[in-house]
Amino acid sequence: MRDAAIQTLLDEAEIKRLHLRYCRGIDRMDWDLIRSCYHPDAIDDHGEYVGGVDGFIAYAQANLPSFTSTSHCICNQLVELRGDTAFAEHYVIAYHRFPASNGTPEKVWIVNARYVDRMERRHGEWRIAHRRSIVDAERVEVVSETLLAPEHILGRRDRSDPSYER
User: What are the b/e assignments for 19-48, b being 16+ CB within 10 Å?
Assistant: First the structure.
């Protein structure tokens, strides 16, 4: 009984960590990291895009660079295990910063969303088999001022970001 409980905790932790890796991949535009979160035959349903992982990555590559930054903040995570299948619901608050353009100020699009996943363990590894991105609320805020001092270390949206340094 104790070994089963420990395995349940390990599986839940692995699934939650996978979701953290996915969000990092999106925010750093690390396409290989995103791909590693999905089984090759997985389906992603983001509303505007529904299809396989390669198509989803192409969709992300076409859309994410239009933002100056994104930040996916993970909130509640519920994982229900059923053998080598798991159902997960990950709450996320995602910040998408638009650059100023054509006389319009910078804006931040804030989305309260949930990723509802069917995960499968194959060959001992949990990955997404089917993901739905569900939007619960959204809003846009105008950036009227910033207070960041020039000495701050700025994040980068690729593998040159300081978080990749080891």
Answer: beebbbbbbbbbbebbbebbbeebbbebee
pLDDT digit string (tens) for 76-116? 999 999 999 999 999 999 999 999 999 899 999 999 999 99
Query: If we measure between CA atoms, which residue out of 118, 133, 116, 120 comes closest to residue 56?
Result: 133
* 134 neighbors 154 (Cβ within 8 angstroms): no
Backbone angle region of 68, left / alpha / beta, with phi > 0 → left and psi within -120 to 50 → alpha: alpha
Distance of alpha carbon 119 from alpha carbon 39, whole angstroms: 9
- Tokens 């992603």 belong to residue: 44
pTM above 0.85, yes or no: yes
**Residue 1 pLDDT exceeds 80:** no
Backbone angles phi, psi at 122, to 5 degrees: -125, 135
